[in-house]
């Protein structure tokens, strides 16, 4: 689980850099929960509160897809 958390953290940091324009020619990855696009599953839907267990909070399928898609942008 620790390795997955580290991977989620790396992908979320890469998403932040893409969104802030520090990295060009890449699209951020994420998933939709309700009407909110989540690109950092380490935070809740507001983007302000830390989530200890992203798989429990957002669901394993969402996190699996986030990691799979995210591997492509961190390579």
Summarize the structure.
This protein has about 80 residues and is mainly α. The chain has helices at about 1-20, 55-60, 60-75; strands at about 30-35, 35-40.
Overview of this protein structure:
The longest helix has 18 residues. The model has no long low-confidence stretch (mean pLDDT 94). A hairpin with a 2-residue loop joins strand 1 and strand 2. This protein has 75 residues and is mainly alpha-helical. The chain contains three helices and two strands, in the order H-E-E-H-H.
User: Could you give the order of the helices and strands?
Assistant: HEEHH
Enumerate the spans where pLDDT stays under 50 for 5 or more consecutive residues: none
Strand order of the largest sheet: 1-2
Instruction: Give the number of DSSP strands.
Output: 2
Measured by DSSP, the beta-strand proportion falls in 5-15%
Count of helical stretches: 3
Which structural class do you get from the secondary structure elements?
A: mainly alpha
How would a textbook summarize the main sheet? Answer: 2 strands, antiparallel
Q: What's the mean pLDDT score?
A: 94
């Amino acid at each position: 689980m620790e390795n997955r958390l580290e991977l989620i953290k790396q992908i979320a940091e890469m998403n932040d850099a893409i969104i802030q324009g520090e990295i060009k020619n890449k699209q951020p990855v994420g998933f939709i929960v309700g009407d909110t696009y989540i690109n950092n599953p380490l935070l809740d839907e507001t983007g302000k509160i830390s989530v200890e267990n992203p798989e429990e909070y957002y669901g394993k399928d969402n996190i699996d897809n986030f990691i799979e898609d995210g591997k492509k942008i961190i390579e």
